[in-house]
Amino acid sequence: MSISNVLTVMVLVSSLTFNSILTSPLNLKVSKFGSKSETGLPEGWSIKKSRSRNRNYYFNESTKESVWDPPAGTDLEKLAAFEAQNKVQASHLLIKHKDVRRPSSWKEDQITRTKEEAVEILRGHQQRILNGEATLGEIARTESDCSSYKRNGDLGFFERGQMQPAFEKAAFGLKVGELSDIVETDSGVHLIERFA
Question: In whole angstroms, how far apart are CA 185 and each of 30, 44, 115, 128, 135?
């Protein structure tokens, strides 16, 4: 095989790998939405996520039809129960440190504190919340290193697979109204409060 043929094969393989990386999150997302019996959708339908509108839609695999509202024949109670188990609304308070993937925030151009210092700061905020001195939202408004500070830390509704694994596990493990202990992710250290 000539060098040009080898290079052509390498480019094709690289292209296929790149394309599978681009499409795999959507494919993985679909598989996370469970079986048809769990979702209450009629046979042939699945739940997908619109990237442009950041909301779910319903897709029929055989007809390639897509609709925003649940298709005819959907067990709406089962669908609502499925969505409730796979979607939460939470707020969080994020304190970054120098070793996170993006060590800057709206408050600081360059964050230099250590992880231990970030945890100590967050423990202080946690104690204030537990003592009833302030709410997570009140503290997040002035102290969070996340852009969600503008909404008192509110992240809105999110589904499984949208957040970093440790954050997702903690958020979905909380009861409504419950505050997490400190959760560590690649973004920093968080306190999470679940609302729905």
Answer: 24, 37, 11, 22, 22
Active site (annotated) includes residue 190: yes
Strand pairing report for 87-95 and 188-194? antiparallel
- Considering the candidates 92, 125, 126, 144, report the single residue annotated as catalytic: 92
Is 85 noted as a catalytic residue in this protein? no
CB 187 within 8 A of CB 93: no
**101-141: per-residue pLDDT in tens?**
999 999 999 999 999 999 999 999 999 999 999 999 999 99
164 carries an active-site annotation: yes
Contact 129, 191 (CB under 8 A): yes
**92 is annotated as an active-site residue:** yes
Place of tokens 């102290």: 143
Q: Is 187 a catalytic residue?
A: yes
